[in-house]
Q: What sequence folds into this?
């Protein structure tokens, strides 16, 4: 009987590697991994996405607070906060949203939609989607006005929207046989639970009694984008996950504005 292959040695502080990879993937923060990522590294890192999203939101809140301290009006402070978050994340999710809008809006069939989504150029649908979503985020933050309320809302929205990403990646199948979504393993149920738990904790700490409504808003927005992707291209891509994040983030911000 052939000998069983040796078990992979346990990695000490594996959670730190996963968290570091989540930071590297989602932001411009110049961290380095202690070890080369495992084949399922990104799927494991998804469990920590909400924590990174909350930190990115808090950073945006810090920019808003500094702008308010300089006596800038809320709309200007809100625009600076959103611009800071776009820069910090490298416009990762915005790029996905624009590609999805162009593909779903301009493609005649599934193959053409996927082809358009792969094109790095931004078309009319993508530009319109970016203008609308950036405008909604700025308007929501300006309506919240207070630096404390803005920071709390951005942290909650950042956490909830990033928790939606592993949920959709776990639920849908990749729409392509190649690309990031197809080559990476799906997050396990444990990673999804971790992401949801982190998002729940952050939202309870920042939104208080409004947390359940924020969760519901994020879930409905994510489900709407996921359902549209399923009908349009039969699954998800990395761009779809970006659109899911953007829709969920905006939904949380709008819910918190409505309940303020």
A:
């Amino acid at each position: 009987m052939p000998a069983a292959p040796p078990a992979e040695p346990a990695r000490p502080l594996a959670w730190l590697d996963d968290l570091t990879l989540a930071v590297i993937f989602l932001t411009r923060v110049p961290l380095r991994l202690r070890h080369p990522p495992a084949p399922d590294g990104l799927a494991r890192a998804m469990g920590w996405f909400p924590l990174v999203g909350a930190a990115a939101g808090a950073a945006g809140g810090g920019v808003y607070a500094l702008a308010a301290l300089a006596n800038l009006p809320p709309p200007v402070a809100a625009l600076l906060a959103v611009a800071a978050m776009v820069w910090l994340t490298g416009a990762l999710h915005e790029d996905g949203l624009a590609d999805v809008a162009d593909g779903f809006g301009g493609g005649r069939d599934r193959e053409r939609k996927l082809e358009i989504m792969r094109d790095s150029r931004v078309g009319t649908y993508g530009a319109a989607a970016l203008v609308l979503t950036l405008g909604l985020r700025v308007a929501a933050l300006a309506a919240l006005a207070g630096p404390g309320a803005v920071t709390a809302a951005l942290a909650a929205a950042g956490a909830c929207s990033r928790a939606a990403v592993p949920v959709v990646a776990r639920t849908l199948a990749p729409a392509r046989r190649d690309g990031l979504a197809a080559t990476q393993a799906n997050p396990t149920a444990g990673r999804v639970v971790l992401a949801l738990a982190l998002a729940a904790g952050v939202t309870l700490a920042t939104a208080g009694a409004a947390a359940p409504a924020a969760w519901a808003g994020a879930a409905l927005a994510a489900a709407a984008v996921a359902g549209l992707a399923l009908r349009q291209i039969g699954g998800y891509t990395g761009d779809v996950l970006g659109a899911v994040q953007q829709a969920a983030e905006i939904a949380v911000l709008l819910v918190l504005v409505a309940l303020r």
In short: Confidence is low (pLDDT under 50) at residues 1-9.
